[in-house]
Amino acid sequence: MTDPQRYRIEVAGEPEMDGCFAVRREVFVAEQGVPESVEMDAYDAHAVHLLATGAQDGRPAGTVRILHGAVARRKYPAAVDDDLTAVLGRLAVAKSARGTGLGAALVRAVEDEARRLGLTGIYLEAQTHALGFYQRLGYTAYGPEFDEGSGIPHQAMRRTL
Question: What parts of the sequence cross the membrane (predicted)?
Fold first, then answer.
């Protein structure tokens, strides 16, 4: 578990969105080579975003987004067929914050927010190198490996809350 004295995780409002996008650009665009046009999509406007910031310096350190309801069904029609499943996506932790437990804390924060919204399950599409991370947090992989448009292999995963 991440040290609460080190990072603060909160639902991001409009003023915090630049921090969310900065972390995603650092991780997905700069490090992994995902085109920004793929990484930043129209679903961002309909998502609940969480932002982790340094407790001492307030700097963005990690982010994740949650889709649910009609938006989740529209983006993931083959995987989400109800209004009770949240979609965890765009989980990114800045290089300087890796190995601190922040990634796991962000996943747990998504689960807490999903419960608060009355949702009962989580769906995600994990980069295959991260399968073990999500499995340790209780997620189960299913179906074949696929490319979701970034050129990086992914695997569908689920967890009941």
Answer: none
Residue 135, Cβ neighbours under 10 Å: how many? 14
- What digits encode the pLDDT tens for the residues 68-115? 999 999 999 999 999 999 999 999 999 999 999 999 999 999 999 999
1 located within any domain: no
d(CA 64, CA 24): 9
Would you say residue 103 lies in a domain?
A: yes
Residue 3's pLDDT band (cuts 50, 70, 90)? low
- CATH assignment of the domain containing 11: 3.40.630.30
Rounded Cα distance, 145 and 156, in Å = 8
* CA R_g for the chain: 15
Does residue 2 belong to any structural domain of this protein?
Answer: no
Rounded to the nearest 5°, which phi and psi values hold at 60? -60, 130
Q: Cβ(10)–Cβ(56) under 8 Å?
A: no
Domain range for 44 = 7-160
Count up the domains in the chain and report the number: 1
- pTM for this entry: 0.94
Residue 131 in contact with residue 34, Cβ under 8 Å? no
